[in-house]
């Protein structure tokens, strides 16, 4: 099985991640099948966290059946590549039914 994970690089207290495609049982420090992009979780002067991503290759690997990790799935959902994962305790907007405020009618 193939998965999409974050491989940590950078120095102590300054993390930097590569978004990589790996065999699911291999460790993230091993040489990946392909590198899809990078993610810098430290915000810059404007408060923006930098993400670079090859959309074409990411969609290919998702289509082939690669499973993203939870953290990668969150990043891909923000990039509108996959739908966001439903969070427990939060209402699911696609499955909720609208509630009408009309009074119930009674038949005599």
Structure description:
- The chain has helices spanning 55-64, 70-78; strands at 2-11, 14-23, 34-40, 50-53, 67-68.
- It is built from two helices and five strands; from the N terminus they run E-E-E-E-H-E-H.
- Strands 4-3-2-1-5 form a five-stranded mixed sheet.
- The longest helix has 10 residues, at 55-64.
- The chain starts with a strand and ends in a 30-residue tail after the last helix.
- The chain has 108 residues and is an alpha+beta fold.
- Helix content is 18%, strand content 31%.
Quick summary:
With 108 residues, this protein is α+β, with helices and mostly antiparallel strands.
Key features of this structure:
108 residues; alpha+beta; five-stranded mixed β-sheet; 2 helices
Describe the protein's topology.
Blueprint lengths: L1 E10 L2 E10 L10 E7 L9 E4 L1 H10 L2 E2 L1 H9 L30
Parallel strand pairs: 1-5
Antiparallel strand pairs: 1-2, 2-3, 3-4
Estimated helix fraction:
10-25%
CA radius of gyration is 20 Å
How are the strands of the largest sheet arranged? 4-3-2-1-5
Number of helices: 2
Terminal CA distance reads: 63 Å
Order of helices and strands: EEEEHEH
Question: Beta-strand level of the residues, as a percent range?
Answer: 25-35%
